[in-house]
Structure formats: C-alpha cells, structure tokens
Amino acid sequence: MELGTLPEWFTACAEVLAVCTALFLPRYTAFRERRASYERMHRVLAGLLNELMRDLGDAEAGAGVDPSKLESAEELGLYLKASYFALSSPREIALRDEAEGIYRALLKPGADVAALRREVAAL
C-alpha cells in the first residue's frame, strides 16, 4: 500500500479543513450574533433604566410629577412592548422580563430607587 506524496497529503488535509470550516462556520457565526444581540439588548435596557432613575430623581426634586408621564418612562415602555413581539431567545426574554419588573417597580409611588439601582447594576 502506497501512502502517496507529501503534496497529496497537504491537499487532503486542506480539503478536510475546508469541509469542517464550511460545516461549522455558520453555526459559530449565529452563536456570535446571538451573543452580540443579547449584549446590545442588555446595554440598551440598562441605559434606559438608568435614564429613568435619573429622571425620577430629578422629578422628586419638583414633587407632584407622575412617573409614568416622564419621557424616559414612555421610551422604556415602548421598547419593552416592541421587544415582547421581537424576541425569541430564552435569555433575551428572561432579561426583558427582569427589566420590566424593575420598570414597574420604578413607576410605583414611593419606589426605593437605591435598591432598584442595585438591581439594575446586577442585571
């Protein structure tokens, strides 16, 4: 039995690597896109929640303001409603549900903003 020449071995190895790359590259690319989507959603939700908490702190200085009427509260509410229909990943859905719980707690009268700020940091 003849093993073949060295260039034939290099060619065979290159073909095997090309097939492996063709099979697994789309899967790895999809994984990276899902991870990037989750991280992007996390940044957006944390930013919107922090903006709402900042606006609530400003509104408490001028008491008598309805928290649900703040522009940042409306923006976050719209984002949560739109993401309800767009999400399919269980991790993203869990993140959205957790953020919605914090959002609802922030809109309640007498919300403990300091405790909720810690929850957002742990989000």
What integer is the average pLDDT?
85
Query: Which value, in Å, is the CA radius of gyration?
Result: 25 Å
> What fraction, in percent, of the residue positions are helical?
over 70%
Whole-Å distance between the termini?
Answer: 63 Å
Number of distinct helices = 4
Number of strands: 0
Features:
123 residues, Transcriptional regulator, mainly alpha
Can you tell me about this structure?
There is one protein chain. The chain is mainly alpha-helical and 123 residues long. It has one domain. Helices cover 81% and strands 0% of the residues. Helix 1 runs parallel beside helix 3 and helix 2 packs antiparallel against helix 3.
